[in-house]
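Sequence, please.
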């Protein structure tokens, strides 16, 4: 059987894992794909290191464009990252009639519409299982396994670096910086780790999942993005006392008038399975009207877990390469002419419960003022804790949990509470999700 020839762009963490797994499991993978899958050429800036990894039989170059222009190559695997050179390479590979496999969520979240349209026109596939939640086959599940359902919402821990940081800080009391360095050493973090800690990487992934779940174009620019960089350890402790864990969630939710697309630290009831996902593990909870809740769990980053997804795509592309392009699985699950114009809602229209922490003077009437402000805006209180002031202090922390309310009303309440003379400093707000239906 004629092998399928692969050109690998980038042999760093994921590229190295892809080469290693493809070599180690070659026989098993060939039995699945129906044809041997051969990496015939590798492009990386580090030519010597690449040569050491792949041996003498594979062409090695630092010129990635020479691979996308090579007529002997059937599939380009893009694992260099970024959205500049990677975009040029992917578009040129497509233009040259090559299928593309990529783990590059940043590229697809920002330029996906252009890339998928170009691939559609050329009749080639762009496969991206590895771009969301590393080794978890969540793209396959959303795009194919759940295709009977009207998906109502999904919520995921989709950034291993931040989940690792939150877990290590809570369990071992380690500092943010030391845990981040460890995540970088383990190969979880992005080239620019601010993408991880500021929630951008999770928003790239949530954007892709939202498009597949709801059949809407890729709209990263409309996502609301907050990371864990402003999270205070004291809130992790109070959340625990109230029966919650704080997780950085990527959320996509269908509402009557549009779609919520947001990433932010979120209080999740501790008893939910997803609240107990620790370390660099990822998990995505999806709610479909027919199936109810389904949960997907596994390693969301690292060399071989991500390679697992890259190679699954290679097998898919190998199997489908000869199929009529019209009968392939559409890139965004829905047929390209059936994408919906359901808008992504502005954050002010989003509805969530909220955790509000404030520093209040310990004197009569303060809580009454706060609760009046909330009541005037139709925000009802679910739970409250008031700490004793520390020895010699006249202020104490007050934590309120609200029922579900509109973001713009919570914003207005925070504004008014902060203006009270008896409240010192800013109100900390962390959104909450019950994730139960
Ligand atoms: P690495 O930085 O480990 O590997 C990328 C390699 O490509 C490096 O050797 C890099 O060289 C090289 N490279 C970059 N630009 C070029 C270029 N223009 N020409 C030739 N070589 C180039 O990245 P990862 O393997 O971690 O990530 C690759 C992709 O996979 C990214 O899109 C990332 O977001 C995604 N991803 C990563 C995961 C992970 O766990 N690491 C998980 C899921 C997705 P240099 O170092 O000099 O830049
Ligand atoms: N930096 C990403 C993470 C890699 O930490 O999850 C996987 O996409």
């Amino acid at each position: 059987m004629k092998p399928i020839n692969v050109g690998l762009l980038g042999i760093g963490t994921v590229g190295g894992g892809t080469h290693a797994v493809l070599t180690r499991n070659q026989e098993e993978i060939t039995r699945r794909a129906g044809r041997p899958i051969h990496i015939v050429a590798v492009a990386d800036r580090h030519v010597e290191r690449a040569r050491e990894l792949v041996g003498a039989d594979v062409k090695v170059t630092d010129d990635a464009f020479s691979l996308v222009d090579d007529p002997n190559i059937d599939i380009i695997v893009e694992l260099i990252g970024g959205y500049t050179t990677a975009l040029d390479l992917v578009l040129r590979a497509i233009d040259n009639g090559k299928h593309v496999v990529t783990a590059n969520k940043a590229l697809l979240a920002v330029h996906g519409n252009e890339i998928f349209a170009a691939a559609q026109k050329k009749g080639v596939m762009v496969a991206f299982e590895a771009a969301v939640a590393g080794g978890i086959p969540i793209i396959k599940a959303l795009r194919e396994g759940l295709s009977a359902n009207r998906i109502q919402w999904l919520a995921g821990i989709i950034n291993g670096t931040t989940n690792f940081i939150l877990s290590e800080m809570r369990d071992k009391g380690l500092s943010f910086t030391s845990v981040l360095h460890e995540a970088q050493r383990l190969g979880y973090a992005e080239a620019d780790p601010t993408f991880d800690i500021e929630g951008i990487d999770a928003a790239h992934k949530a954007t892709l999942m939202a498009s597949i779940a709801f059949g809407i174009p890729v709209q990263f620019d409309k996502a609301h993005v907050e990371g864990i960089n402003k999270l205070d350890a004291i809130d992790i402790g109070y959340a625990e006392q109230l029966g919650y864990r704080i997780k950085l969630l990527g959320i996509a939710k269908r509402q009557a008038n549009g779609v919520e697309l947001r990433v932010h630290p979120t209080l999740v009831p501790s008893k939910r399975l997803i609240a107990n996902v620790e370390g660099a593990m990822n998990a995505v909870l999806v709610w479909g009207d027919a199936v109810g809740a389904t949960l997907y769990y596994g390693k969301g980053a690292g060399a071989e877990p991500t390679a697992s997804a890259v190679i699954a795509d290679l097998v898919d592309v190998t199997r489908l390469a000869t199929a009529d392009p019209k009968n392939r699985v559409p890139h965004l699950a829905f047929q390209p002419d059936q994408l919906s114009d359901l808008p992504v809602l502005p954050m002010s229209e989003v509805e969530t419960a909220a955790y509000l922490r404030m520093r209040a003077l310990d004197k009569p009437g303060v809580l009454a003022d706060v609760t009046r402000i909330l009541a005037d805006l139709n925000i009802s209180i679910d739970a409250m804790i008031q700490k004793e002031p520390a020895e010699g202090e006249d202020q104490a922390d007050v934590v309120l949990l609200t029922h579900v309310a509109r973001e713009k009303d919570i914003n207005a309440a925070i504004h008014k509470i902060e203006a009270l003379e008896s409240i010192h400093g800013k109100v900390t707000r962390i959104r909450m999700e019950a994730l139960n239906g």
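The two ends are 49 Å apart (CA to CA).
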